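Q: I have 178 residues here and want to know how they pack in 3D. Can you give me a structure?
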Amino acid sequence: MPRPVTLSPWSPDWGGRAEALISEIAAAAPGVFLALHHVGSTAVPGLVAKPVIDLLGEAPDLAAIDAAGPALAGLGWRARGENGEAGRRYFTLDDPDTGARLAHLHAHATGHPMIPWRLAFRDRLRAEPETAAAYAREKMRCAALHPEDSGAYAACKKAWTDRVAGEAVRGWGGGTAS
């Protein structure tokens, strides 16, 4: 079901929310994730974003992620399978009272190409304010075209993000944690 697209000014609270979610996941599924990172637009200071925290989890294999499913469900995360991305386990967290989307967890096995893609993209936006500003313009353009359909909004900006992330991965040196 499509969700409306609401872009918000960057909030310093997003980093704390991400860290709290990371701590909860690590405590509920100890030893499953080799790393948990705050990624996406809410991880880029100053960038307009949907107020939904994106997390990236890296595990030894998909079986470990699947085995953590019940522990994540106990925290309110809903398993969505690959959700259109081979080799991913995708989870969503919604507010139980309002149904508002709070967070996404993109979980992959070590070595999956989307791990460096997401980290390099985030790190490039953090390091290059002009690229982050261009991304903000692209996000606002796509939100204006698709205000009631988050899937169409994501598809609208995909060519831009794929191009910039591809460039970032080629020049990425490993980046920073969280």
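Q: Anything worth noting?
A: The two ends are 30 Å apart (CA to CA). Residues 55 and 105 are 5 Å apart (CA to CA).
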